[in-house]
């Protein structure tokens, strides 16, 4: 089987000592990012892109890309795990996908079972990580083979689907989400047009010729936006942290959580594969499912271990599942995967069907490293749970200014221009104002990443058809993709008109 | 959710969309006359944004105003930190990384919470000097080090 051979080669990459180190640093920082209040996986990954860019500076381009994406992905799934720690100990989710964990996790902590809740979350995350990786290995090659048949028209429609999926589910108002998407696409047109070589919206400012830097915008909107929010809206004082006594779960705990972990993993994986439906939705659905399956649904909300095991497995599985559309189709399904995609593009590595042929070292190295990283998370977190719980107590007075300083360093070290620092600050303010008023910023960043590709594919398709726009609907595959995209936007609207409650996907 | 903000944002984005469409016309003049020039995409986007913004402004007419909450917002801290960040950006190149970072952190730490000077100075020094040496010396990156007199 060829996938296994490729995977074996991937392990050769992942087992290089520096890549083991990168995976280790990634999951370690990721866990810290998940635990720290005020930085989520998106801002964590965005902040670390420039740092990894300098760390890998000495390596040949291909290995540099592989090593940095290994680290950044580690931050991503590490943060998914770390978010549970604060949910359980503080009743404050570290990131949005851990919201449901607070329901039963905090209750367990109140009853003195914090250790069991934390370790079940770790075990569940591990199992989910491995299951979703197996899915990734099995699906990666076939999916990218299908995508190889795509022409520019199909690609254009596929990317529209990706955008529709992310904006259709994000935030409270679809109008606002769509506005952010279109605005992101517009920002992407600034700079020299790749096809005709004509400068657009640059007003003879040389600094704009290369376009607005994705990294600056992402760090500004996410990391600085969150910092500004915390400074401006003095968040409620942190409560007391629950004590951790016994770390290992009891035999009964294990028995009670095995089925929820397995169900959560599969559910989370399939939700993660869908673009737009992220980890938050996965953990939410898993919680509902567990309540349905349980013989004692009334116990949920009072410290049922299944209410921790299921959702925590689901959110990790979803982050694994979200790697599939990213790697095979080049469509990031969530805010964090959009940032990972931007990082890959910075290294001249184009995610998508050609990734597995052109850069097998990157693709399979990443997949293999995720096996190692998940194992590290388990080994690290069981004994170190108490240490990570300490991170929660980092005083905000030091944390917030240091995040500003890190984002300055990160942007300047990659761009070397003061212009980007001003842009960064402006994006920080914009990010705060927009998110505060329910304008979701993840679609904006996603659109900024996909924009140039959407435009190029649209124009290539139109060149083939001599300017006839019907090419997008006469090709069956392209038509199908467009129809799904339209359905993605219209179905929630129709449901809303009928008065049905809609699950809103928070950014993750 | 704020009605005033939404209305203001709706109008602002509407103007941005309008500007985009108008400015895109200038691109088309310089294009080489192909059917799908570099102006089509921005024009389409600009028009879409105009439509969406108009829709948002229309939606703001129908909001319930009851949901608006008056939170206490800490402007003073934010403005001090934001202004020092702008100064930090402006002085980074002339004064170098270590000095500006140290100064910014110290100001920001003290703004967040007064007192504990010794601790603030130690953390600011460790961060600015640490990052600089780790990055510039150990990793071989380039950062403006110290001012050249």
TrEMBL record, chain A:
Pfam family, one: TctA
Keywords, comma-separated and alphabetical: Membrane, Transmembrane, Transmembrane helix
DUF112 domain residues: 20-446
Record-linked InterPro entries: DUF112_TM
Annotated transmembrane regions: 20-51, 63-83, 116-140, 152-171, 177-195, 207-225, 266-289, 326-350, 362-385, 397-415, 421-450, 471-491
PANTHER family: TRICARBOXYLIC TRANSPORT PROTEIN
Protein name: Transporter
Species the sequence originates in: Planococcus lenghuensis
Automatic annotation (TrEMBL), chain B:
Keywords from the named record: Membrane, Transmembrane, Transmembrane helix
Domain DUF1468: 8-144
InterPro entries, A to Z: DUF1468
Transmembrane feature ranges: 40-58, 78-109, 121-143
Coiled-coil intervals, chain numbering: none
Name of one Pfam family that matches: TctB
Protein name: Transporter
């Amino acid at each position: 089987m060829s996938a296994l051979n490729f995977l074996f080669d991937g392990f050769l990459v992942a087992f290089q000592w520096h890549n083991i180190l990168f995976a280790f640093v990634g999951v370690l920082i990721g866990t810290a990012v998940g635990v720290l209040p005020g930085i989520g996986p998106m801002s964590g990954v965005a902040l670390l892109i420039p740092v990894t860019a300098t760390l890998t500076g000495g390596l040949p381009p291909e290995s540099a890309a592989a090593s940095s994406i290994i680290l950044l992905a580690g931050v991503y799934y590490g943060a998914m795990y770390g978010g549970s720690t604060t949910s359980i100990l503080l009743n404050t989710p570290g990131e949005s996908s851990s919201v449901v964990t607070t329901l039963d996790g905090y209750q367990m902590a109140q009853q003195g079972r914090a250790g069991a809740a934390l370790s079940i979350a770790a075990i569940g995350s591990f199992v989910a990580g491995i299951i979703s990786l197996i899915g990734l290995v099995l699906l990666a090659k076939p999916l990218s083979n299908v995508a190889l048949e795509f022409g520019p028209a199909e690609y254009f429609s596929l990317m529209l689907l990706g955008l529709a999926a992310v904006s259709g589910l994000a935030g409270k108002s679809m109008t606002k989400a769509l506005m952010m998407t279109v605005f992101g696409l517009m920002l992407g047109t600034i700079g020299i047009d790749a096809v005709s070589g004509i400068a657009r919206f640059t007003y003879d400012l040389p600094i704009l010729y290369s376009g607005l830097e994705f990294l600056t915008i992402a760090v500004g909107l996410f990391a600085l936006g969150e910092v500004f929010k915390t400074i401006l809206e003095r968040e409620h004082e942190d409560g007391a942290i629950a004590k951790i006594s016994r770390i290992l779960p009891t035999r009964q705990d294990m028995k009670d959580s095995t089925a929820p972990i397995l169900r959560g993993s599969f559910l989370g994986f399939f939700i993660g594969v869908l673009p737009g439906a992220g980890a938050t939705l996965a953990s939410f659905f898993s919680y509902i499912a567990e309540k349905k399956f349980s013989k004692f649904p009334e116990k949920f909300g009072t410290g049922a271990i299944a209410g921790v095991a299921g959702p925590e497995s689901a959110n990790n599985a979803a982050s694994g599942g979200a790697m599939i559309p990213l790697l095979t189709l080049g469509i990031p399904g969530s805010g964090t995967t959009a940032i990972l995609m931007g990082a890959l593009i910075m290294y001249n590595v184009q995610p998508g069907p050609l990734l597995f042929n052109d850069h097998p070292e990157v693709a399979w190295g990443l997949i293999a490293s995720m096996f190692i990283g998940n194992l590290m998370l388990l080994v690290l977190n069981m004994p170190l749970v108490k240490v990570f719980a300490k991170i929660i107590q980092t005083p905000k007075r030091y944390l917030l200014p240091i995040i500003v300083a890190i984002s300055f360093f990160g942007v300047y070290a990659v761009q070397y221009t003061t212009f980007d620092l001003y842009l960064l600050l402006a994006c920080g303010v914009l990010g705060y104002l927009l998110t505060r008023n329910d304008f979701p910023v993840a679609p904006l960043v996603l659109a900024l990443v996909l924009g140039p590709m959407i435009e190029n594919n649209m124009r290539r398709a139109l060149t083939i058809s001599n300017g006839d726009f019907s090419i997008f609907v006469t090709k069956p595959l392209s038509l199908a993709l467009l129809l799904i995209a339209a359905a993605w936007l219209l179905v929630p609207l129709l449901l809303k008109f009928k008065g049905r409650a809609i699950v809103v996907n928070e950014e993750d | 959710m704020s009605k005033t903000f939404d209305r203001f944002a709706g109008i602002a984005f509407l103007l941005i969309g309008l500007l985009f469409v108008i400015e895109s016309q200038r691109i088309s003049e310089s294009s080489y006359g192909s059917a799908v020039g570099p102006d089509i995409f921005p024009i389409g986007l600009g028009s879409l944004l105009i439509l969406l913004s108009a829709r948002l402004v229309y939606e703001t007419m129908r909001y319930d105003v009851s949901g608006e909450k008056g939170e206490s917002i800490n402007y003073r801290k934010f403005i001090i930190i934001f202004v020092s960040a702008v100064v930090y950006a402006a002085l980074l190149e002339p004064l170098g990384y270590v000095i500006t970072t140290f100064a910014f952190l110290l100001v920001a730490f003290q703004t967040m919470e007064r007192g504990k000077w010794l601790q603030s100075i130690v953390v600011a020094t460790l961060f600015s000097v640490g990052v600089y040496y780790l990055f510039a010396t150990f990793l071989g990156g380039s950062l403006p080090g110290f001012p050249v007199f």
